[in-house]
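Question thread 4412

I'm putting together a teaching handout and wanted feedback from people who do this every day. The idea is simple: show students a protein as raw sequence, then show them the structure tokens that encode its fold, then repeat with a second protein so they can compare. Below is the first pair exactly as I plan to print it.
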Amino acid sequence: MKKYFTLILTCLFSICYSQNSITGKVTLDGKPFEMVNIYIKNTTKGTTTDAKGNYTIRNISKGKKTIVISSVGFTTQQKRVNFSKNNNIILNFKLQEDNTNLDEIVVSGTMKPVKKLDSPVAVEVYSPTFFMKNPAPSVFESMQNVNGVRPQVNCSVCNTGDIHINGLEGPYTFVLIDGMPIVSGLSTVYGLTGIPQALIERVEIVKGPASTLYGSEAVGGIINIITKKPSSAPLLSIESYASSWAEINTDIGFKYKFGKTDGLLGINYFNYKNPIDNNNDGFTDLTVQDRISFFNKLNFKRKNNRTFIVAGRYVYEDRWGGDMNWQPKFRGGTDVYGESIYTSRWETFGTYQLPTDEKINLQFSANGHNQNSYYGDTFYKADQYIGFGQLTYDTTFGKNHDILMGAAYRYTYYDDNTTATGSETNNEPSITHLPGIFIQDEITLAPKNKLLLGARYDHNNVHGGVFSPRINYKWNSDNNEDVLRISIGNGFRVANVFTEDHAALTGNREVIFEDELLPETSWNTNINYVKKIITKNNTIINLDASAFYTYFDNKIIPDYETDPTKIIYANLNGNSVSKGISLNTDITFSNSLSIIAGATLMDVSVTEEGITERQLLTESLSGTWSVSYKIPSIDLKLDYTGNIYAPMDLPLLGDNDPRSPRSPWYSIQNIQATKRFSPTFEIFGGIKNILNFTPASNSILRTFDPFDENLDPENPNLTFDPAYVYASNQGIRMFLGIRYKLL
């Protein structure tokens, strides 16, 4: 009797817990790919691929099962498999790059990886392919074809600039690399230059305040540059091109192993030493530049695939602009006018997952920025050091609550030779402590409805506490062809004028602070609607429309007009509003033609003492486009990219200023042809700025007297002024380059 009982139990056990298993390999372009998620749908069974791309799942019950593979940046694949008793099935997968918007993985909206479709926060994603349509030597310049985003040149002489999102200036844009802040006032100018583009996996953009998660500076939006995983990067990648202006840009990426650690090294080098003065004003149209950047990323192997990633970047740049006769020996003198900037910047950041059953991550970043500059004979020397640490806890509560909570601390040290950090006899570096705590709860109200609630509290040792709440709602249709997102959020920012606004240093205007500058605060609401249409002839149309409204208190706006000889900085005694609508379209035809186009209509105004005026250097309408066509028979791709901007109000030096008070309609357009000779080698070339648009030749006022030694007694306010700027003086040019990958 006992034997029969044992036999029955054995049979039951073998039925419930069979020895069925599945093994296989995941590859990309014939190479093994690790850290790919493999799981059985509607079960808890799953694993990830190892360094050789292999995976195994054991003890699978009998029946038909759906095997799913997923990885960030690649299409999710499913295969149906029928398991009978004691089967060992071999199933291999080939990864395919994800080119559909809704399946892309994003992290910027909620600080953790989710499909773009599932994110309650509207996130725009741009792949390297998008930026290759119009190659540029920096991410800063690459942004010119993103709808609602405008690279703004802030100085006609030194050519430094920042990124405007929906009409808000660069200091309101929060820059991250791999989700970690490289935040600082100086990063708004230099944070987007010198990043080796060969290592960029994608760029995520969030428009509107994100202070709930990221704290101060995330008022206007986020630009998050996601770099490649060492495991997925090619062994070697090279992109290099030269222009007819004698610009040379080279990006090199190299993957390596150091024991069990995967490494990724990137180098960017940009050189331009050919001063040109096509507008005949006696000054350089483009600054002479020599820049080199190193980037290194290490992925350490740990038990249970826990995360430990450390990365670092170093940038050095020497640039000058000014009188065509300027030489380094004139630096800081009054014989020949020049603006010379030496910049040395380092950054490090990383993520360490604690060895606990719960998902707890320690994230950190630090950066140091040293600048030695002369604007004519005005010396500016600044040192800035920032340390940031953050502990996050990612968990679930019940079936419908996905919770992220954390604590953060930021230390900022800033010292320069201006009155911002003391007087002539007493140096007082600015030191800021900014601890904060935050929490967000992503609530699944129904299978197609999500609600995100978030709140953050920061305490600035100078300005006190700041509370930042937000709420986001998302609905999508059953077929995922319609997605609606609604958001309301609060943002705050503490300004440092000298690091953010080079107009305060360049030229001869006197800088005046009316009072101590208080933190800026804003409220933002955004409605986003996404529609996907597939026509009968397999044309795919993606529509992405948004309406936005941002209201500012205490906004800091430089006043150029009250006194033409001064720039007056003060908190606005009133309010500022940025509102508008935008539309992005992405159309893919079945005949190898694709079109990406967008337009933004906005009104950015300032109201003070009952008077409302448009904000300076803000366009009311902008548009971008990218038209691509591939000729498969000869493997040739043609790209036509461009943008257009409506007139914007410009800062003048009073009523007698001879320059136009408004910029004209202008458009920068480019064409490119790319010939692919193999999956690893291609040649590209084209023409930039084919309309040869440049601002008026008198944009820099009185270049003949940059030190104001011979002012007109009848118009003494008309001084040398390079702050009247809205676009680059660089005209039409040809370019030719190569791309090579060793897999």
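The second pair follows. I'd like the answer to focus on this one:
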Amino acid sequence: MGKIRLLPEALACQVAAGEVVERPASVVKELVENSLDAGATNIEVRVQRGGIALIRVTDDGCGMNRDDALMCLERNATSKIRTKEDLGAITTLGFRGEAIPSIASVAKFRLATREPGALTGTEVIVTGGKLERVNDCGEPPGTQIEVRSLFFNLPARRKFLRTEATEYAHLEQVLKTQAIAHETVRFSLVRDERLAFQLPATTSLRERIGGLVGDDLASRLLEIEALEQKGVKVRGFIGPPGMGRSDRRQQLTFLNGRPVEAAIVTRAMREGYHTALMKGQYPVTFLFLETDPGAVDVNVHPAKREVRFHDGFAVQDAIVAAVSRTLRERMIRPVSGVGLTGSAPIAKSPLVQEELIEPATVYSTPRLDPRPSALFTALERQRVASPPTGEGAKPERTLSNPAPSVATENPPESAPSIEPTPAIEEKPKASDYRIIGVLGKLYVLLEAKEGLVLMDQHAAHERVLFEDLRRRMEADGAPSQRLLAPIMVDLPPRDFDLVSRHLETLERLGFGAEPFGGNTLKLDALPAFLKRDDPEAFLHEVIQEIRVASDRMSSLRLGEDLIATTVCRAAVKANDFLKEPELRKLLEDLLRCDMPYCCPHGRPTLIQIGYPELERKFGRRA
């Protein structure tokens, strides 16, 4: 007798279920997707003990007749696709025909369904993959599926489930994600006979997001106006600078209505935020992508979480363009101080602490000469001590002759003139703020029509210097410093081939590089602003960034971490005394920047505390 045998049908279903049904949340995901594919406008989910004891999903979709109700229990039975051509252009959430038989094989399963207009419906009872009975029923039009005692016949799988609270948290997150993707559908969740949430159907995506994460957070999100580029359409909402999270739980991406995960989307989001995002932080995003179904492969994993794009660079470029445009055009007010996360005070940063005792500084924007010998000279010239008023005297922190109020002061001639559009509010000018004073020798207090605004003078000057230096490098290339003795770097064949195709990029970054036989690269010049003992390690970092970067990304972005570090050392620090004209000039230069509301490290430069928040603090409003 041979060693290879066919598995019994029940055992084969249980094996297949291991890929589809991982936990109660997987059951909810599959059943809700079926309800959405059936055209449901009202979906109710009831769970007990975190979904381990009971999951009941009820919808008002198209329902099924008796033949379809029995056929859906068979493996690879589906109404979503018919031919292999359909598999290349999937438009539904489900298509594999594995979810229902897999769920029924590992639980006590009940299906009740009725088509609109039918006199009676059909009830099917299955226990552990074994069909028990089929009856007529009087359920309302639509479908109701009950899943009880999940993994009752697989103790080994059941013991790997987490606590009821943990399983419920995963289940709730799955349902909320589907609710965001389909705002025109009514969703409700009942946990242990208590209503957890109920979301009415709406045509406003912001309203649906507010119903799930809170109106305060939803109101602060920046809307991405629909942008279509090379067959990829991007829309949705993103968080402003300062609204970062330590994980990706609020970084949601939907492709053609399907929640998806893709590394290229994560990279594109970080590139789109660029210097507006702190390291180690993830943006709050609700991103919706639309593309030709034939340009994406969703048949990667049975759980359908991962997707592959035929043209990943086109998707990445569209996301980068949409996010960067939104931050540039929509982020025209200071970051709100309410609910700000991920933004530690500059005074506690190791980049600043070491220079807290530096002498006072006179502010002026340096004009950087692109030649190597002048680059650091111009930056160091920024650290000029302001002479005290008397011997041993300390500079005063109070500002005399405050600037006129907004109502009487004319805008400075140097301020940029931006024509307001009906959809976008006019960008504020320096004349919109009145300087009140300086707090803690670091935070500049400003009065605006919205309330109190605090400006971090160090972070603000960092942003001004950063954009000034970056513009000059983009125009003339990064300055280089010749080496007395060339450095020979042996690279793996793959990296050497990549470098050979991007020698021009390395030259613009300030590297002098050329092939030297085999897979060896000769370095005879390095960027002038490079202050590292191991230039070879830095070259490997640049190669890695080139590998994951889009072809159309600015080559100078690869070295911007070094630029940010350079300007951080040259910018004014805490305890540096700035006179009122210098503060005014700093504010004007900051508001002329492309991204004025965060420093190159992603920390806020301006934080606004509005009058409503002040009134709540003083008990003037509830």
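Top answer:
Good format. For the second protein you could add a caption like this: The first strand starts at residue 42 and ends at 48. Residues 9-199 form a domain with the Heat Shock Protein 90 fold (CATH 3.30.565.10).
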